[in-house]
Amino acid sequence: MGRAFVYVILGGGVAAGYAALEFTKKGVSPGELCIISEETVPPYERPALSKGYLLPEAPARLPSFHTCVGANEERLTPKWYKEHGIELILGTRVKSVDVRRKTLLTAVGETISYKILIIATGARALKLEEFGVSGSDAENVCYLRDLADANRVVDVMQSCASGNAVVIGGGYIGMECAASLVTNRINVTMVFPEVHCMARLFTPKIASYYEGYYNSKGVRFVKGTVLSSFEIDPIGKVTAVNLRDGSQLPADMVVVGIGIRPNTSLFEGQLTLEKGGIKVNGRMQTSNTSVYAVGDVAAFPVKLFGETRRLEHVDSARKTAKHAVAAIMEPEKTDEFDYLPFFYSRFFTFSWQFYGDNAGEVVHFGDYSGNTIGAYWISKGHLVGSFLEGGTKEEYEALAKTTRLKPAIDDITELERQGLGFAVTV
Ligand code: FAD
Fold it and tell me: Cα(24)–Cα(63) distance, rounded to whole angstroms?
């Protein structure tokens, strides 16, 4: 038993949705394209799961955040896919792929063949078990990657009103979840091994700005240590977490956000891998010319920095997806991908954006006791990265434009004095 398509997108997340929209813009014919996804719903804007989805009042629910509303484009509902003759094979895991034969085998035993495959399998949340801690299957321990996880967070949160939550991990999932939990009137303690939150991106000064606000909202930070085990009651619920520093925290629920691992396993030994992902060229093409990779799973050349990177951010998922489709459908009109890394997050009433690379020396600007804070990163005499909290659309655009230009910086003190004004006037 089997079906054949010209184009198959493996995975039904953010990148898949943006790729589908681009296919229709480039004139795909009905019946040519299929999306196969383990998830039971069509592509949606995954970042909503740790933000609007967890609000106590008027929470975001599907179908409101199907792709591509996150980029102010059309909202692709099940009806849209039907109208465009795009086959959605949902709730279906692909268990093996043969890139030489150009076939995929699903968990229900169907063989699907393709002429061109786009890998958009994203990533999965790392489990505590991978760090030697057991207990992830306890009913009040939550992860957050997909809709099922988000529903679980909501259920568990509702069952522990005014209780204690321990958030494991100080990255953006931890920070966004902690804010949502507080908004749901839950007491939060965050635990992470680094010296401050968002350690991969924030400087100590930026981190302290946000941590101060979290403290004012009652969030406690336990830094420099990790979870070592859970106390679990006879009905299988975690009641406390034990930390490696010997302390114990009471817990009515636990949210774990300790990083992700790209879903590459179907292609190991078949395609070239790099930086933990599937290596692609500037056309998003893998080491097999009939196979493309996009989104979190793709390691692609970032021209601006002259190196291959794998980015775990929604903007890169959207743009790599669009670029792959353009390269497939209009090869002669499509140049090498030229991307400015961009990442944002929102928690409480904060909203920040980051562009470029956080390498080299840092220049902070703005009012760290007020509402607008920012920073530039200077590497080898050039501005390579920028960060801004609470900017306007025009200010963010100016920051992106300036960062892409990588202007030479001769006088760091002058840059510090000009602050945001530097980007706005470049
Ligand atoms: P995904 O969206 O993860 O989609 C992968 C898809 O592949 C899934 O549907 C999965 O089920 C499917 N799949 C995988 N393996 C198989 C298989 N074998 N068979 C069938 N289907 C399979 N980024 C930001 O820049 N800013 C944010 O504020 C932000 N917030 C986020 C909040 C949360 C809670 C999460 C989880 C992520 C957030 N991100 C954010 C990151 C962003 O969502 C990802 O970068 C983006 O979703 C990557 O898109 P993707 O299509 O590559 O992967």
Answer: 20
Reported ipTM: the value is 0.99
Contact 327, 284 (CB under 8 A): yes
Nearest to 134 by CA among 229, 231, 241, 57: 229
Give 161's pLDDT tier (boundaries 50, 70, 90): confident
Place of tokens 């399998």: 121
Give 47 Cα–ligand 1 centroid separation in angstroms. Answer: 8
What is the CA angle 254-217-196, rounded to 5?
65
Rounded Cα–Cα distance for residues 252 and 250 (Å): 7
Best residue among 314, 323, 354 to mutate for probing ligand 1's pocket (most ligand atoms within 8 Å of CB) is 314
Residue whose CA lies nearest to ligand 1 atom number 39: 47
For ligand 1, is residue 284 a contact (CB within 6 Å)?
A: no
What does the pLDDT look like over 179-234, one tens digit per residue? 999 999 999 999 999 999 999 999 999 999 999 999 999 999 999 999 999 999 99
Distance of CA 104 to the CA centre of its chain: 26
pLDDT tens sequence across 261-272: 999 999 999 999
Of ligand 1's listed atoms, the one at least distance from the Cα of 43 is 9
Per-position DSSP letters for 226-271, written without gaps between them: -EEEEEE-TTS-EEEEEETTS-EEE-SEEEE---EEE--GGGTTTS
Picking from 226, 283, 233, the residue whose alpha carbon sits closest to that of residue 258 is: 226
Question: Averaged over 13-37, what is the pLDDT?
Answer: 98
For residues 24 and 84, what is the distance between their CA atoms, to the nearest angstrom?
7
Nearest ligand 1 atom, CA 260: 36
DSSP string covering 19-88, please?
A: HHHHHHHTTPPTTSEEEE-SSSS--B-GGGGGTGGG-SSS---TTTTBTTGGGT-----HHHHHHTT-EE
